[in-house]
Amino acid sequence: MKTTKVMASEQSIDKFDGDLLVYSVCEPVNGEKSIKCDPIVEKEVINAFQLGDFSGKEGQTLLLYPNESQKSIMLSKRVLVVGVGKLVDKLGKIDIYNLREQFRKVGGTIALISEKVKAQKIMISVPNFEDVLLNNLTSADIAECLAEGILLGDYRFLKYKKEKKDEPDYKGLSEVKFYLEKGSKTTISLIRKAIKLGFVSAQSACQARDMANEPGNGWRASDFASYAQDLANKYNFKCTVIDKEKMVELKMGGILAVNKGSDEPPKMVILEYVPKLPKRFGDTKNIDTILLVGKGITFDSGGICLKQPSGMENMKYDMCGGAATLALMQAVGQESPENISVVAIVPATDNLTGGSAMKPGDIICHYNGITSEIVNTDAEGRLILADALAYGVETFKPVCVVDIATLTGAVIMGLGHHYSAVLGNNDKLINQLQEAAKRAGEPLWQLPLGKDYTKQIESKVADIKNTGGKSAGTITAAAYLEKFVKDTPWAHIDIAGTAWEFTEKSYIPKGASGIGTRTFLEFIRSWNW
To answer: Which of 77, 86, 307, 525 is catalytic?
Structure first.
């Protein structure tokens, strides 16, 4: 994975001789006749403003090329001015979550222009909007979001692409420096801490993208296991991999049934992080444990209930929940939170159509003894998650559990590609996840659960059946999972509409979005149960 050097610099902007120097400019509000910007670029920006070519609207850009007479005040090869949009609305109200997203998008725009001009080394002038924002969003917060957006927007997956000798691929940014504008109340040390937060968040999401963008023959259940073991070795996690033989012994009928059509054996990958606490914190037994479970279907053909050929190549993305969960553990290893233990479980297999594949009408028995009638073999994600949830809740006794999965096509019909769905049995948990998701720019929309929906998955020949029909498909899938968490506070996040083809943004590429990782990270950073 490419690593870009990101740093806070005390080097004066006029000494920066790299490829691109970047300023951010906000859009005037309430009839203001002028536009405010750094004196170095003020003349050019005001000229463009007066001509109507640049107003600071979100996503607008102005690319400048300093001439010889300007070399005394700037050495940079190019100067980019990016529009942020309005910082406050007409009533003077400030939306912190929207502002974080605006600056994240500015970061993505910077990455796009960097690619256009093939910039390697850039410097960002962190804008000082503290007087306008009244500490609702500090310069450090802005730097964090800019760093996050730049690194997310600078992502590319070129592993399998042969480079053309006469037209080499742009490999992305090698160095990003942040310079704090004069007059800010924020210190350079706070900027350093902030950009590190943005770096860790973006890097973990890009790692999830890397996993998800691998083809079905490039990322298997065994690769989840290998990656988890590498994380365990690097960050001193405990790694457990439950293999097929052990699954048979434990009677994990869900994941075994899904795997029956495959030549590749299944794995249930478990990573455990427990903080090393100073003595003043007492015993680690007093630390809350959260359980995260991610669906790891490495390729989904639909099984006997075969999917349509058109678009089936995208089913390599059916492991995005598992990718998000393990990539989150990379961030946990880097940040080592002191106040929480984290357990991540990824049940992993593909869903194919071999001669032994499960069939509609089959009856299976899950880890917790619940029997299930298989109505549709393409409703396989809930089968592997059910075993993982039941095993995880029983084994680790977490204070809460969250699962994340590309679970249902129905969620796209309901929410499109703009929101992920969240459902669960605990409003406090759901509210905390929604707050974390808003902070990460990955919004969640809560759907209901209840007895009426649970009735739809009742079976005449088993305890439950694995689909409840076309109506409320996302909800009945969650109702299935609810059977396996007992009374533990639980939430389910369905990312089938956002794991790829997510709402177009400057920092979201084509293909895998890496969604879920940054939401989980914000959830952990703000943990308060």
So the answer is: 307
- Locus of tokens 């990782």: 517
pTM for the whole structure? 0.96
Contacts 24+ apart (CB under 8 A), 199-202: 199/6, 199/147, 199/148, 199/151, 200/331, 200/334, 200/335, 200/521, 201/148, 201/331, 201/440, 201/517, 201/518, 201/521, 201/522, 202/147, 202/148, 202/149, 202/150, 202/151, 202/152, 202/518
Task: Give the integer Cα–Cα distance in Å for 506 and 317.
Answer: 21
**CATH fold for domain 5-205:** Leucine Aminopeptidase, subunit E; domain 1 (3.40.220)
User: Residue 238 burial by CB count (10 A; 0-12/13-18/19+): exposed, middle or buried?
Assistant: exposed
CB-CB contact of 22 with 1 (8 Å): no
The set of residues, in sequence order, having a beta carbon less than 8 Å from that of 246 and lying 6+ positions away, is none
Burial of 69 (0-12, 13-18, 19+ CB in 10 A): exposed
Rounded CA separation 100/485 (Å): 34
Q: For the chain, what are the domain ranges? A: 5-205, 214-525
Fold of 214-525: Aminopeptidase (3.40.630)
What is the torsion angle, in degrees rounded to the nearest 10, for the CA atoms of residue 486, residue 488, residue 494 and residue 495? -140
Per annotation, catalytic residue among 209, 267, 382, 438: 382
- Is 209 labeled as catalytic in the residue annotation? no
Distance CA 155, CA 108 (A): 10
Contact predicate 396/291, CB 8 Å? yes
> What is d(CA 13, CA 114) in angstroms, rounded to the nearest whole number?
18
**Alpha-helical segments (H) within 154-218:** 188-213
Mean pLDDT split into 10-residue runs, the chain, 529 residues:
87 89 90 76 91 94 86 84 92 91 98 97 92 86 98 95 84 95 86 97 98 97 98 98 98 98 98 81 76 98 96 97 98 96 98 96 98 98 98 98 98 97 98 98 98 97 97 98 98 98 95 97 96
Beta bridge partners of 143: none
Handedness of CA 205, 207, 210, 216 (dihedral sign): negative
Residue 520 gets which letter from DSSP?
H
Alpha-carbon radius of gyration of the chain = 25
Q: How far apart are CA 21 and CA 16, in angstroms?
A: 8
Quote the distance between the C-alpha of residue 308 and its chain's center.
28
**How far is the C-alpha of 221 from the C-alpha of 219, rounded, in Å?**
7
- Report residue 252 as tokens: 């994990």
Please give the structure tokens belonging to residue 207.
Answer: 């790692």
The residue to which tokens 């300007």 are assigned: 70
**274 near 341, Cβ under 8 Å?**
yes
Q: What is the pLDDT of residue 281?
A: 54
Q: Is 307 a catalytic residue?
A: yes
